[in-house]
Amino acid sequence: MIYTVGIRLKYEHALAAGIKTKLGRGVGPDGKPYPGGFVFRTIGDARRFLAVKGLTGTHMVLGVKADWDRDAEPVAGALFRRLIPDAELVKLD
User: Fold this and answer.
1) Model confidence, pTM
2) Confidence category of residue 87, pLDDT binned at 50, 70, 90
3) Which of 16, 5, 92 is nearest to 48 (CA)?
4) 77: exposed, middle or buried (C-beta count within 10 Å: 0-12, 13-18, 19+)?
5) What pLDDT score was predicted for residue 6?
6) Could you tell me if residue 78 is left (phi over 0), alpha (psi between -120 and 50 degrees) or otherwise beta?
7) Where are the domains of the chain?
8) How far apart are CA 57 and CA 50, in angstroms?
9) What was the pLDDT predicted at 19?
């Protein structure tokens, strides 16, 4: 399991509606190329990212059923990677 961050309200609504997929690299919902969602190796890395960006009040951390080495592409100089395949989201307690 790896982790992602997102706008709390958006993800809570999506999960409640049965949408449980984090988008990987490909075509986004707007029809434009999408590089893949942000993913982090650990929950701590994801939480630190939100804290540094001042987003802890509006964003949340979720699990992603994917492998850090196989399913995530490095981004030069970034703590996060980009998700390559679409992957299942997991709401954390």
Assistant:
1) 0.92
2) very high
3) 5
4) exposed
5) 94
6) beta
7) 2-84
8) 9
9) 87
